[in-house]
Amino acid sequence: MALKDTLLAEFDHEMGTTRRLIERVPDAQLGWKPHEKSMTLGRLATHLSNLPNWGTTILNDASYDLAAGPPHLPPGGSRDEILSQFDTAVSQTRAALDKTDAELGAQWKLRRGDQEMFSLPRAAAFRTFVLYHIVHHRGQLSVYLRLNNVPVPPIYGPTADEG
């Protein structure tokens, strides 16, 4: 099996699970946050909707410079807007995954100006910055939903809300 096929299967599974969670975000609670240092529910969901975009950068560019990066996106104004951003990002990144094993094994670098933070094969960078990063923030979002009495959908198996 080609590395691309493995990454596509993982990507499709994680994006489907993430979309089901974002679908539960209540518009009326977008400004809610559990702690003064936490992101709002809307900002967290928007961040999740944007994370697949890292995939196109990793898969199409040799490196990324954090110093030249854009500012944080403003929080989405509604669940539908956030889902639309997510669907666009997922579609573009899925198309960018059409790479050979050699391309997926090529080194990708994260930089901050002239400093190289690290270098990883593209497939490893994709898993780290896209898949694992999404799983991390999806966990946060599931807690935010639970704290707002929104039923949490199954993620890697049944939840207390939906067996």
Keywords:
single chain, 163 residues, mainly alpha, three-stranded mixed beta sheet, 6 helices
Please describe what this structure looks like:
The chain is mostly helical. The chain has one domain: Four Helix Bundle (Hemerythrin (Met), subunit A) (Up-down Bundle), CATH 1.20.120.450. It has six helices and three strands; from the N terminus they run H-H-H-E-H-H-E-E-H. A hairpin with a 2-residue loop joins strand 2 and strand 3. Helix 3 packs parallel to helix 4.
Q: What share of residues is helical?
A: 40-55%
Please identify the top-level CATH class. Answer: Mainly Alpha
Q: Enter the CATH topology name.
A: Four Helix Bundle (Hemerythrin (Met), subunit A)
State the assembly state of the protein chains.
single chain
**Poorly predicted spans:** none
How many E strands?
3
CATH level 4 superfamily: dinb family like domain
| Strand order in the largest sheet | 1-2-3
The shape is globular
Outline:
The chain is mainly alpha-helical.
Helix-strand blueprint:
Elements: H1 3-22, H2 41-50, H3 53-60, E1 63-65, H4 79-96, H5 101-105, E2 107-112, E3 115-121, H6 122-147
Helix pairs in contact: 1-4, 1-6, 2-4, 2-6, 3-4, 3-6
